Amino acid sequence: MRLVDTHAHIHMPHFDNDRETIIQKFENDNMEFIINVGTDLDDSRICVELANKYKKIFASVGVHPHDSKDTDNEYLNRLKKLAVMPKVVAIGEIGLDYYRNFSPKEIQQKVFAEQLLLAKELNLPIIVHIREAFEDAYNILETIGIPEKGGVVHSFSGNTSWAIKFLKLGLLIGISGPVTYRRNHSLRETVQKIGENNILPETDCPYLPPQPVRGKRNEPVYVKYIFNQINDIIGRDVSEILIQNAVELFGVNI
C-alpha cells in the first residue's frame, strides 16, 4: 500500500538520535511523501532545509498559536521569504489553541488572521490547528476566507457538525492517531459521515501515536495504521483516494 503523511514534525528533538534512519525508512519504502510542518520561524527554516535535502520531504511554514506571543513586527516578512521557497507547499501550522493558552487569545487571533491573509496573497493552502477554539477559528476563517488552494483542519478533534461546517468553507479534515483509539467512536463516526473525498491522513509525529504503537514515539511510517482504520470505517480500500486528496491540495508531483 502506498502512503503519504500530510503532517509530521521530524525536525523536532525527538528525532535527533535517529533522524537519518527514520528518513531512510520512508525514502526507500512505499511512502510517497511527507509534509513536514513548522511551528515558529526558526522551526520553519529547519523544515525548509530538510525539504531541500530530501526528495520525499516537503515543508509547511508558519507560526503555531502557542508561539504567536513571540512574534515581532517583522515576522510576516520573514515568513513570506520562507514561504516562496520551491519546496514549501503550505502555510501552517496556524490557528487557535485555547486548551493551553500559551499565548493570549487576542494575540493568537491576530497572528492567525495575518497568516491567513498571507496564505491568500501567496495562494498557498493552509494547515490549521484548532483546539477548544472552534467557534473563534471558524469565524476568522469565514470572515477572511481561505486561499483558493484550500487547506486542512489538522488532527481534527471536533464533532461531525463542525467537520461539515469546515468542509463547506473549502477545507479538508485531517485524521490522525486518535481515530484508532478504542473509545474514540465520535471521530470514527465523523470519518464515516464525511467520506474519503474529504479526508487527509496524517501522523502529527512525534505526537499522537496510533493505538498499535500507543506509548511510543510516533513516526511517519505509522500513518499506515491511519490508512487501515479509515479503510475499515469506509468499508473498502480508499488509500489511493486519500493520496490523491493530498496530491491535489499540496500540488506535489509523485
From TrEMBL:
Q: Name one GO molecular function term.
A: hydrolase activity
Q: Extract the InterPro entries matched here.
A: DNase_TatD-rel_CS, Metal_Hydrolase, TatD-like, TatD/YcfH-like
What keywords are annotated for this sequence in UniProt?
Answer: Hydrolase, Metal-binding
Cite a single Pfam family from the UniProt record.
TatD_DNase
Is the keyword Repeat assigned to this protein? no
Tell me where on the tree of life, at the top rank, the source sits: Bacteria
Q: Does the keyword Lipoprotein apply?
A: no
Q: What is this protein called?
A: TatD family hydrolase
The species this protein belongs to is Thermosipho ferrireducens
